Amino acid sequence: MPTTTWNRHHILSLADFTPTEYNAILQTTASFQEVLSRRTKKVPTLQGQVVANLFFEPSTRTRSSFELAAKRLSADTLNFASATSSMTKGETILDTAKTYLAMGCDIMVIRHTCAGVPNAIATEMDRLGERVSVLNAGDGQHEHPSQALLDLFTICSIIDPVNPRLELLKDKKIAIVGDILHSRVARSNIWSLTASGAELHLAAPPTLLPKLFADYVNDSGVSELNGKRKLFIHWRLEDALRDADFVMTLRLQKERMTAHLLPSLREYHQMFGITRAKLDWCKPNVKVLHPGPVNRGVEISSDLMDDPEFSLIQSQVTSGVAVRMALLYLIGSGKAV
Ligand code: CP
Fold first, then answer.
1. CA 144–ligand 1 middle distance (angstroms)
2. 227 Cα–ligand 1 center, Å
3. What is the mean pLDDT of each run of 10 residues along the chain (337 residues)?
4. Which of 230, 258, 310, 312 has the fewest other C-beta atoms within 10 Å?
5. Which domains, ranges and CATH numbers included, belong to the chain?
6. Residue 252 near residue 298 (C-beta atoms within 8 A)
7. Which helix (H) or strand (E) holds 121?
8. Rg (CA), the chain
9. What single DSSP character describes residue 235?
């Protein structure tokens, strides 16, 4: 493992992450990728620690890859799903978290439909003086840090598989296309990708990309990189895709739409769906990402999604295990076992 100084106790948002922290995660992930290529894919790093996956909202990739990551690190894992829990009998979120604390949980991985729930649990653990770490696995429309970090690793390791690092993205053009308004993935990726020095171009119909996104990073007042980030918004897809090195397309989050924001899915696909033909606007070796789950034929054509020449979608899922091992290792290895 690389020798890394890591001081962060919870991972709730990428808003204040530094380049040093991004590079620590990228290097640690590369080391765990090597572990995962061995015949025995397990290390004793978190032996004796308990990792609880508290998922109050459905998930396939995030929950399974956090569980697998914890098991590869030899931690004991607990899986919670609200539909089969005592929350159906009226137990509160904080009492649920305290129940897992009482069982000796060291790390809580939390997903919730409401923004701020991981933060509230982390605040309560800190107030109680407990050393439990909280990892945000996606909260409402707020953030999805581990997804953005696996996206970052996937992109960097395509450029340099041996030494993936943040600086590789300097001056690359990256487009994020789709339902930005409802996307926690976009909100985390905006922090990480602009921290790298890449030019980040957001594209969507105006109903899914309010103008205020142009000020998202520069008005926050929390980043040491303020004023150096390059973020642009477009309501015409071609402007975002022209000469792009990477295109990330996002799922239309119909479950979060409270109004009729689009004339039809067919028109959306015609205007903003990513197809092979539209990739002609990009650099010839452009790569396409999608965090999943995918609405095939809506935000991306089915044939492009399955085309290994362009699509990094399966690599993103694979990277997710090593990235989550790195996150659990970095916040878990400082704990007494
Ligand atoms: N990308 C993502 O968060 O997928 P899941 O909802 O399947 O975890």
1. 9
2. 32
3. 81 96 97 96 96 96 98 97 91 96 98 98 97 97 98 98 96 96 96 94 94 76 59 95 98 78 88 97 98 96 97 98 98 68
4. 258
5. 19-143+320-333 (3.40.50.1370), 146-316 (3.40.50.1370)
6. yes
7. helix 117-127
8. 20
9. S
